[in-house]
């Protein structure tokens, strides 16, 4: 029977612009997790939640550490996610509980003393980032002394592994807050807002993770461009699959300064390149701005970097001299809270990585779109080049990750690289369908058995993945 046009239009609108889905439409595996978080909510708060939110983690296929430099990246959402069950509680308290209580203990705060401690980040601070970002966006208009919330969280994204568990939590919190207070925010706005508010935790991240967590559509990876934020669906070539393998080396971005150091090095390289190109340094804040204002194609920026920057690390004094800044001006305008101690900066290597990685992203997209017999080989090669650049120029790898990449290649991957921030976490490998089974067996034998302590993590440490959908609100 043909369905009326109005019904079809409603369905289209539902998938494209609103987040809300009936709970009955959730996949059965998702329903199991929803039941777990519902039971936990009920045990802690003595009632049922009003609704649920899910926001997925992601795997970045290529384009590492370039989103905060303004360049496009190429991630896809994964099945693993953060689930939030939530209800208004009529008090002025936010009560947060987590299904994994031993790792993430309960937390309660009054609405009038919300604080995010970026020096000692705890799990609930990430939730509060999303909450605060949303209420600030609404200028606190919706908050009263009875706007408190009961919240239970369940996460399946491996934490601190480069698959964006923290951003999934921030996005889920922002979306849950939006719906609890009946605010109206578009998907694009939510993606930008969640990215800004995760910075309350202290890391100066780019917008990739939130954009994909909110905007992902099942079945395709996305090219994500910034300023303005826009996304393009890209179908991945057939015949191979992306497999994630966790090195099981954990690194928390907010509790260390590695990530912000790289952001600072890119900022300094931007200023020095801009000056050398005769640009107005106050108008230029990202490496992409230099390339655009100087009107140089991205694949020719390598030449400019080699002309202007030197390979030896820059001292703080030298940077101040070049930029004509006093040390205290330098500290206040260019360094962040956890990078004030820095004395040396590798600018040549970081800028070279960023421009070359940005070119690789566009080549990756073109190969996916053109589709030829050699597509898979070429994609694999770009991924492996990207890893080498992360390891040697950006220095964001880890010996265990490098070992894992080599083992993945030996086990049949056409390409393999670290994914996400690095310094630990996961690899993503492009593996031909017919080799997947052997690939899994080989890795288990050669990496996970060798690192004996990882045996118990095997079930969750290595898994094939396909492009999943973005954030959703489930209601009964
Ligand atoms: P990632 O690369 O996974 O985003 P981060 O180091 O940025 O790693 O963030 C990890 C932090 O996010 C954890 O230390 C924890 O505070 C929070 N987090 C991740 N998953 C969960 C979860 N399931 N429940 C509560 N907090 C979580
Ligand atoms: P993960 O892997 O989630 O820590 C971080 C940044 C991204 C991006 C990647 C590196 C945040 C929230 N996320 O991701 O923006 O810069 O590193 O490509 O800071």
Automatic annotation (TrEMBL):
Gene3D superfamilies: 1.20.1440.340, 3.30.230.10, 3.30.70.3170. Residues 375-448 form the GHMP kinase C-terminal domain. InterPro entries: Galactokinase, Galactokinase_CS, GalKase_N, GHMP_kinase_C_dom, GHMP_kinase_C_sf, GHMP_kinase_N_dom, GHMP_knse_ATP-bd_CS, Mevalonate/galactokinase. Keywords: ATP-binding, Kinase, Nucleotide-binding, Transferase. Residues 142-215 form the GHMP kinase N-terminal domain. Belongs to the GHMP kinase family. GalK subfamily. This is N-acetylgalactosamine kinase-like isoform X1. Signal peptide: none annotated. Pfam families: GalKase_gal_bdg, GHMP_kinases_C, GHMP_kinases_N. Transmembrane segments: none annotated. Residues 40-87 form the Galactokinase N-terminal domain. The keyword Cell inner membrane does not apply. It comes from Limulus polyphemus. It comes from the Eukaryota.
